[in-house]
Amino acid sequence: MANELPATHPQTTAAAKTSLEALYNWNYEAEIDQLRNLYANALERQWIALRDLDWEREIDHDAFSRTFSLAGIPIQQTTFWKSLEPDLRWEVSRRSAAFMLSNFLHGEQGAMMVAGQLVNAVPHMDGKFYAATQTLDEARHVEVFAAYIKKLDVVYPIAPALKILLDNILGAEDWMKKAVGMQVVAEGLALYSFRDMRNQTEEPLLKKLLTYVSRDEARHTGYGVKYLSVVVPTLDDRQRAELEDFAFESARLLIDSRVSNSIRQNVFKMWEAAGVDIKAALELIMKDRERVVTELQRTGGRLGPIRGFVIPTLNSIGLFSARIRGHFEEMFEANVGAQAMRKIGDIPDLPEDLDAWVNEGV
Ligand SMILES: [Fe+2]
Ligand SMILES: [Fe+2]
User: Fold this and answer.
1) How many angstroms does the Cα of residue 275 sit away from the middle of ligand 2?
2) How far, in Å, is the centroid of ligand 1 from the Cα of 247?
3) What is the DSSP letter of 183?
């Protein structure tokens, strides 16, 4: 006898209106070899979250709070951090990390839905094959982030700006906008942040999980770069400008403090709930700021995900005109409130082998 159907449907809390053209392609031969190879590579590199990660293992509290970083800033080097009792360090780091990982988790759900859309929307069979593998990768990412957060704390709600970004990408009709918004901007930023967090943390389960996820993300970004590099040169000026604007708007939603200054406030609220005296903490952090920044620069500096990765990606696929550079520079200046921060200068090359770049430091 068949199992009984569940009595209730899952409650949906949000919906995005989407509309896209689903394209058939009757040519089953490889047309873009680079994408066909990437698909083959994705098949080889599948992993199974329940089998390949040790979920029985408890989170190592000490390693976790000793090597906790917030948006690339090694907060554990500050006097503020050293002034906290070990229990409070664990409380603060676990809550802040759960907050960040929750937004990664929600982003992964969005990425899974967009990858599913790309199977329909991209015109080439190689592109459809690849997007099919990515859909599965993203399902696994949703699975692992949800499982890890469960060990730490609760799942926090999505940041409003991230929700707008996902709605924009899901709602875009043009597959190239989806690819630029998701594969290049959102996944580029995610990849850089995952790799940063992976390099900082000494908590074994988190380190392994982020290593596996980053390897997948490197392929996803690679897909955007390879596919768009083939297509962008065929576009006219108007189409190219539209794509550039979409990329800029996507980045703006993720990093412009004028759009969303609530992330920092949310983190401070959580610290307060954990028992931190925020006023005293901020004073200590401000005192240390210069020393930590100098230390960061001495050890090779840190360009951050947009300057260090997203802009080089846009540049490499031909979507970084002088016009759009001006938009980014204006945003940087407004965000930091200093003209010195405006200049983008020479754009670094994208790592040639993203997979090797991800594995550096493992
Ligand atoms: Fe992902
Ligand atoms: Fe991804």
Assistant:
1) 36
2) 19
3) I
Using alpha carbons, select from 85, 77, 68 the residue that is nearest to residue 203. 68
Structure tokens that stand for 48 in this block: 């199974």
Query: Vertex 252, ends 248 and 215: CA angle to 5°?
Result: 80
pLDDT at 262: 58
Question: Sign (positive/negative) of CA torsion 227, 229, 234, 235?
Answer: positive
User: What's the pLDDT at 33?
Assistant: 95
CA–CA separation, 181 vs 115, rounded Å? Answer: 12
What is the average pLDDT value for the chain, to the nearest integer?
89
- What's the CA-to-centroid distance between 260 and ligand 1, angstroms? 23
Q: Which residues contact 302 (CB under 8 A, 6 or more apart)?
A: 72, 296, 308
- Centroid of ligand 2 to alpha carbon of 324 (angstroms): 25
List all residues 6 or more positions away from 143 whose beta carbon is below 8 Å from its beta carbon: 49
Contact of 254 with 161, CB cutoff 8 Å: yes
For residue 24, give the amino acid letter.
Answer: Y
Rounded to whole angstroms, the Cα distance separating 247 from 227 reads 16
pLDDT tens digits, 65-116 = 888 877 666 677 788 888 899 899 999 999 989 999 999 999 999 999 999 9
Helix 187-200 × helix 204-231 angle, to 10°: 150
> Which tens digit of pLDDT belongs to each residue from 251-289?
999 887 676 555 677 788 888 989 999 888 888 887 877
**Distance from Cα 110 to the centre of ligand 1, integer Å:** 9
Ligand at shortest distance from the CA of 221: 2
Neighbours of ion ligand 1 (CB under 5 A): 108, 111, 138, 141
Alpha-carbon distance of 129 to 1, in angstroms, equals: 36
